[in-house]
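Onboarding guide, step 5: your first structure request.
Type a short instruction followed by the sequence, for example:

Predict the 3D structure of this protein.
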Amino acid sequence: MSPATDSRAFATSQAEVEVLALAAHGMSIGVAPELGGKIVSMVWDGREFLFQNQSRPLRRAEYGASYADFDASGFDECLPSIGACRYPDGPWKDADVPDHGELWSIPWRTRIEANAVHQSVDGIRLPYTFSRSIELLPGPQIQLRYELRSRSSHDFPFLWSAHPLLAIEDGSQIHVPEPVEVIVDWSLDERLGPQFARHQWPRTTDKRGGAVDMSLIGDLADGFVEKLYTSPLQAGWCGVHHPSDGYWVAMVFSTTEIPYVGLSINQGGWPVDGPGYFNLGLEPCNGFPDRLDIAHRQGTCRTLPPHGALSWEFSIFFGLDDDFPRDSVSSLAAEVMHA
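The system replies with structure tokens like these:
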């Protein structure tokens, strides 16, 4: 069946939100244009790789709402901040930036063309246009291309983070290039210390001196949750492997464009008022921490010049192996850097 024939639109069982489906090269994705362009499903070889929230069905969001009040699933985009804050600079100084940014809760313009989805959306309180194209390629590979364009005569500081929440299980293992440190943005009950505490990846100790392997997923009943950021990566990749069946997913990018990865490791600890979810945010990003005002103050965000534009991209690969193929994924990252 051709990619064009595979591409189709349909209404989900959550009748409030329409999902556009695209299938090619053994992969399929579902995208919800009116729900922040959310990628609601990402399947390869019959396996769903994104977290599906069975307790909170998809529904239309409201601009400025709390992310936790909605489905908190799938793959969203966060911009110009991940955490709620006041905008730090320019004529919009002190404007409220919503939780998880502006993009996840508003409708996007969308068109499907062959085996690709092209989308764009305008900022609400800030003058920018954000564009994303998703293409299904042989490999199997999902390529995501982005552009951010300022419509202002002032500098535009921002954070961007991809926000895919991946399905995990007891024993799943996170992989990032080593050696690397991780920096705490938030850890429930300060299990791994206060904000900006640093740990060498992957093994460390918690506040009570207990051994912790941050790369190894435990059990939902553990009740842990951490949001960590890597220090600047030496190579542009990250991934997770599921030893129970051998499936893995990896993300590959240029460290010039995307120097960090956020790790939102949720083992039943969030939402804090429960019941907690079991998922992994594996989040290529261009700055840290979650709040733009703090990142701007410490010089760890990006800034567009007046009427400037910035483009970047990353790719998602899937596979099936007894172990995570670090060497192969590292080679893909090296090809990206030298392209």
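Each response can be followed by summary notes, for example: Residues 1-13 have pLDDT under 50 and may be disordered.
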